[in-house]
Amino acid sequence: MNLAPLPALIGHRGLPSLAPENTAASIQSAVDNGIEWIELDVTMAGDESLVMMHDPDCRLFKQPDIKLAKLNKDALKKIDAGRWFSDEFAGEPLLFCEDMLALVRKTGVGLNLEIKINPDLDTQRQVDLIWAELQSYTEMFDRILISSFSIPALSHLRSLSDVINIGVLFEKVPSNALEITSTLKAASLHCDQSHLSQELALTLSEAMPLYCYTVNDTVTLHKLLSWGVSGVFCDRANADDLKAIVKEHQLTQKA
Ligand code: G3P
Ligand code: MG
């Protein structure tokens, strides 16, 4: 499936400098601040609810001992996903995948959905359920990119669909990364910028679009763009100083 171009600044978990990560407020804040693509994390709870959360437990809400695998949708609905961030967002609910997809459609924002496999639950089942949710959104597939650190999850997704756009996530890029992306017919490769060398970035970005997490400062952004990196996951993707670096880079490319 053709993938619409991603911008150089992708909202990491929405716009988490202004609103609690992975919530509807974070998506809306990103959209209101002109961010065109966002990355969000989805995982699964004990009753197979798909919820927009980074961790398989409640550490973000200061309850690290509560595992998602032990919770159902009713319990998740009682969690305050905003108060930890600020009083302004007290009462912000956790966002479920189905509601997230509806909001993404309504706002028109591009979506990089990162599957966080809950290690306490079955991998294939999590992918099956996410894929089932996506069935109602096939008309948006050119601006949906599914990524994961879990190669088994991505392999299973690819077995379910030839057309879905896949991004392969690595913390540290392994030497066989391009074999993996090729096998998965991936559209992009994503990695932790802190482990990336100039030589590796140039090699990878020659082969396919390369996106790095998490970049919040102008110096790193400038460096990565000059190394051929297509874009970065950023906690403040609306920031003028970062946008100025992107603009400067685009002018250099045209010259
Ligand atoms: O998808 C890029 C990035 O979000 C991966 O790391 O831990 O922030 O989900 P993390
Ligand atoms: Mg993520």
From TrEMBL:
Which Pfam families does the entry mention? Answer: GDPD (PF03009)
Q: Report the domain of life of the source organism.
A: Bacteria
Q: Which residues form the signal peptide?
A: none
InterPro entries referenced in this protein's UniProt entry, alphabetically:
GP_PDE_dom, PLC-like_Pdiesterase_TIM-brl
Q: Residues in domain GP-PDE?
A: 7-244
Report the Gene3D superfamilies cross-referenced here. Phosphatidylinositol (PI) phosphodiesterase
Which PANTHER family does UniProt cross-reference here?
Answer: GLYCEROPHOSPHODIESTER PHOSPHODIESTERASE, CYTOPLASMIC, GLYCEROPHOSPHORYL DIESTER PHOSPHODIESTERASE
Q: What is this protein called?
A: Glycerophosphodiester phosphodiesterase family protein
